Structure formats: structure tokens, C-alpha cells
Amino acid sequence: MSSTCLTYPLISLLLFICMLLQTPSAAAQEPGEHQIKAAMTYNMLRFMDWPDDNLPGQAPQMTICIAGKGPLGSAMASLQGKTVKSRTITIQQLPAPPVIAGCEVLILSDLERGSVINLLEKTRTIPVLTVSDSRGFARSGGVVGFVLQQGKVRFEINQTAAQRHRLRISAQLLKLAQIVTETP
């Protein structure tokens, strides 16, 4: 067998591999689960109001704080610098243990259940929107919990928790949510 007979299939195979490497995959083009959750959080902020006494002089920034180092918190970094209700979003990674003063939104990202319960207790009456994708988050006292249903990202809202945090949620947003109640 001649060397040219082996060369053409080898060259064809190498060209095919190069084309595969250069073609973006469908997964790279579609946003991932956590990017969808970040985008949903951003859109939810437009349909929520905090008590007036929480925003001294209509602060020009909205602070989103992240407790934990999970993928949900990492995805929230994409919101840095965006504006909502004429306020620029600032993302702040909280140290351990978290200090939540100045946070208007608290993202609990990939924390142990005990840490989640502890933070929910610390923020129980503070005007802060608590968000997580931890299992049973909204039923445990969080305001917004992300869930996967049939492969799609959905969200639950705990209205009792929102009222306790003195947050007003638009009826439009409530229509899109699954409303849950706290379990003792």
C-alpha cells in the first residue's frame, strides 16, 4: 500500500476534527441553568419594591450579596453594572461568616442546610430579598426559590416571607410563580 493511500484519509480525518473544534457546540450557544436563574433574578427585581426607609435618598446602587461559592453565585456576577429601576447593580461576595448589612438581595449559593437556615434566621425581618436554588428553600423561609421542573427552571415565592421582609411583589410576578407556604 502506498503512503498516499494512508495520507488522504488521515488528512480528511484531521480536517474533520479541526472543523468540530472550531464549530461552537449547541451547549455553548445556549445559556446554562445558572445563567437562566441569574437572568430571572434580574427580571424579578423590576417587579419588587423595598420599603422606602431601606433606600436612603434613593441610593444609586442596588447591592446583591452572595453567600457561598456555588454556581448560582458565580452566575450572578453577570449582573454587575446592569441597571434596574434606575439603580446600578453591585455584586458583593460575602466573607465567611457573612455580614449582610447593606445587602438588598442575598443569594445563598451552594451552602449547607444549616448555614441556609442560620442566614434565613439572621435576615428574618430585614428588608432583603433572599434567593437560592437549594431544595425546599422557599418552604424553609426564603423568599424566592428556584426549582427544576421537567428540565425547565421555575421559581417559587413565599409570600409570607416576602411580607416579613417588607417586600412588595407585583401581582404580575406572582402570577408566574408557584406560591408556597412555609413548613414548620
What's the arrangement of secondary structure elements?
Blueprint: H1 3-22, H2 26-29, H3 33-45, E1 48-49, E2 61-67, H4 71-76, E3 83-84, E4 87-93, E5 105-108, H5 113-122, E6 129-132, E7 144-149, E8 152-158, H6 159-164, E9 168-169, H7 171-176, E10 178-180
Parallel strand pairs: 2-4, 2-5, 5-6, 6-7, 8-10
Antiparallel strand pairs: 1-9, 3-4, 7-8
Describe the structure.
With 184 residues, the chain is α/β, with parallel strands linked by helices. It contains seven helices and ten strands. It has helices at residues 3-22, 26-29, 33-45, 71-76, 113-122, 159-164, 171-176, and strands at residues 48-49, 61-67, 83-84, 87-93, 105-108, 129-132, 144-149, 152-158, 168-169, 178-180. The chain has an eight-stranded mixed β-sheet with strand order 3-4-2-5-6-7-8-10. The protein has a two-stranded antiparallel ribbon with strand order 1-9. The chain is globular, with a radius of gyration of 22 Å. The N and C termini lie far apart (78 Å). Mean pLDDT is 84; it is low at 3-29.
Regions with little confidence, pLDDT below 50 for 5+ residues:
3-29
Oligomeric state of the chains in view? single chain
**SSE pattern, N- to C-terminal:** HHHEEHEEEHEEEHEHE
* Number of DSSP helical runs: 7
Q: Class by helix and strand content? A: alpha/beta
Distance between the termini: 78 Å
β-strand percent reads 15-25%
Q: Whole-number average pLDDT?
A: 84
Describe the largest sheet. Answer: 8 strands, mixed
Number of strands: 10
Strand order of the largest sheet: 3-4-2-5-6-7-8-10
Q: What proportion of the residues is helical, as a percent range? A: 25-40%
